[in-house]
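Researcher: We're teaching a course module on how sequence relates to structure. For the next exercise, students receive a sequence and then see the predicted structure as C-alpha cells, so they can try to spot secondary structure elements on their own. Here is the exercise chain.
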Amino acid sequence: MSGRLVIAIDGPSASGKGTLAKRIAAHFRLPHLDTGLLYRAVGVKADRLAQPPEDVAAGLQPEDLADPGLRTDVASQLASQVAVLPQVRANLLNFQKKFASQSAGAVLDGRDVGTVICPDAPVKLFVTASADARAERRFQELRGRGVDTIKPRVLAEMAERDRRDSERAAAPLKAAPDAFLLDTSDMDADAAFAAALAFIERKGFRSSGP
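Model: And here is the predicted structure for the students to work with:
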C-alpha cells in the first residue's frame, strides 16, 4: 500500500509500547514521537519553575524533550498529574498533530494517540500487559538505574497512575475501537515486534528497506 503511514500506539506504562514504537519506526524509517515525553517535560518544567502547567505546555519547545531528567520515576508521576488538565492537553495537541502530519508519516506512542491525536491513523495498536508483568518490568528497570525501591511500591504507584490516566475527563486512556490489542504479558520484545509487524503488514503496509 502506498501513501503516508501513521502508526498510533497506545497503552499503559511498562506495557512495552515505547520499545515497540522505536523498533517499528526504525523498521519503516519513520520519525518517532513518545508523546508521554511532552507531559513529562511539562510536569518537570512546571515543578522546577513553579509555573502553571498550562502556560508551560503552551510554550513547550522541541529542545525541552532532551532533558535527561524526563526519564525518572518522579517525572512519570508529574506527567500523570498534569495530563489530567484539559488545557494542558489542548495546548499540546497542535504539537502532536504537526508531528504526525509529516509527509512520509510517523509513529507516535502514548495514551490517546489513536483516540484523540490521530483518530484517522491507518494503523492503531493498543499495547497492554498484566499489572504484575508491568510492575516487574518497571521494578527491574528502576533497579537497573540504581533506584532503591521495592516491588509492592512500584505496583502501588503504577495502579495509582493507571487510575488517574483511565478516569481523567480529558482523553482518558482507552483503546480505539479499531485498534489491534497486543497483550505482551508473556512476550519478549522480539515476539511483540513480530506480532505488531504482522498486523501492520496485514493492513497492507510493508517496509521499503532491505
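Model: If you want an answer key for the exercise: The domain at 5-202 is CATH 3.40.50.300 (Rossmann fold). The longest strand covers residues 5-10.
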